[in-house]
Design brief:
With about 300 residues, this protein is α/β, with parallel strands linked by helices. The protein has helices spanning about 10-20, 40-55, 75-80, 100-110, 125-135, 165, 170-175, 185-190, 195-205, 210-225, 235-240, 275-280, 300-310, and strands at about 1-5, 25-35, 60-65, 115-120, 140-150, 180-185, 195, 230, 245-250, 255, 265-270, 290-295. Helix 5 (about 125-135) crosses helix 7. Bound molecules: beta-D-ribofuranose and calcium ion (CA). Calcium ion binds near residues 8, 10, 13, 36 and 123.
Length: about 300
């Protein structure tokens, strides 16, 4: 399966990278970087380091947008640590990123591919929105946008908004209205694929570099949140892409709230029966989107996929 990951590495982006880089089912054509969990100047070296640990220095990495379209950059260092990678002090990577902007890398890779490619954005959607705005010719070349972002209910960045969408709501709005096939892997499923402290410790002691890094990152998350379990987050999104049968998916109109004081960045998922929406049409214009939303997940299935990839 040909894919490109778009990341803001990021503790859980690191886990997604380890999985995609080591899974025999994924042909990782490249990784594009965008600001998000930390500033772009940290995201790029973090991404290169993780791919080096995964033994995949062949995978091209490209530097993308370093600001949201129309929002202040807040980042999420309280969650991921000042360096974005749990302050583990990993050695610098031996190589540099590609000498091309991420948006151009995406355009070129898509246009040169004989087959449409799936993009897996695990970060604010700035790179993807700029790609769609500047290069609409790529639309037929995108097989699917398999997005970690949004929530049906409770948010994390705010009461109602998920971080990736809240950090760049205008970009998310452009992407959600693009008409492309979208899978929304939101917070309801994102939170569920977890490992315990004992499992993390067994990864650290495995003698495998990818597993050791995953174990250290999971342990950082547990310490940071004072818990005895932690999720692989974006890693679960990639696992579900590899094996979609463990997701329960329902299709709904979804729009991104751009203006609400308390709700900016919320993904408003219209779960009303179509007949109710029609009868109440005076209150809300048609959303004109139909998005596949992940509503439930077989977490154990994805724990296994992750475990096999990092230990294999
Ligand atoms: C998302 O935000 C980031 O902090 C994580 O890397 C993940 O992509 C979860 O809301
Ligand atoms: Ca992320």
């Amino acid at each position: 399966m040909n894919v490109i990951l778009d990341v803001d590495t990021g503790v859980d982006d690191a886990m997604a990278l380890l999985l995609a880089a080591r899974s025999p089912d994924v042909n990782l054509l490249g990784v594009t970087c965008v600001m998000g969990n930390v500033e772009l100047k940290k995201v790029v070296p973090n991404t290169l380091k993780v791919l080096e640990v995964a033994g995949r220095t062949d995978v091209p990495v490209a530097r993308g947008m370093n600001q949201p379209l129309n929002e202040k950059q807040y980042n999420a260092k309280g969650v991921h640590g000042d360096d974005g990678m749990g302050n583990l002090g990993l050695p610098p990577a031996q190589r540099q990123e590609e000498p091309v902007h991420a948006v151009e890398f995406l355009r070129r890779t898509l246009m040169e591919s004989p087959e449409p490619i799936t993009l897996i954005p695990l970060a604010p959607l700035t790179n993807i929105a700029v790609l769609l705005l500047q290069h609409p010719e790529v639309l037929p070349k995108i097989k699917q946008l398999y997005i970690m972002g949004g929530a049906i209910g409770m948010g994390n960045a705010s009461a109602t908004a998920e971080f990736n969408v809240r950090q760049d709501p205008e970009a998310a709005d452009i992407v959600f209205r693009s008409g492309l096939p979208i899978l929304m892997y939101g917070l309801e499923v994102f939170r569920q694929v977890t490992f315990t402290r004992a499992e993390a410790q067994s990864f650290i002691e495995s003698g495998k570099p990818a597993a050791k890094l995953a174990g250290q990152l999971l342990t950082f998350f547990m310490d940071n949140f004072n818990r005895d379990a932690a999720g692989i987050g974006d890693g679960g999104c990639v696992a579900s892409f590899i094996d979609p049968a463990g997701l329960t998916i329902e299709s709904y109109p979804v729009r991104v709230e751009l203006t609400g004081t308390w709700t900016r960045g919320q993904t408003v998922v219209d779960r009303r029966p179509a007949i109710t929406a029609q009868r109440e049409s005076a209150w809300q214009p048609p959303m004109n989107t139909m998005i596949d939303v992940a509503v439930d997940i077989e977490a154990d299935r994805y724990r296994d996929i992750f475990r096999r990839a990092i230990l294999g």
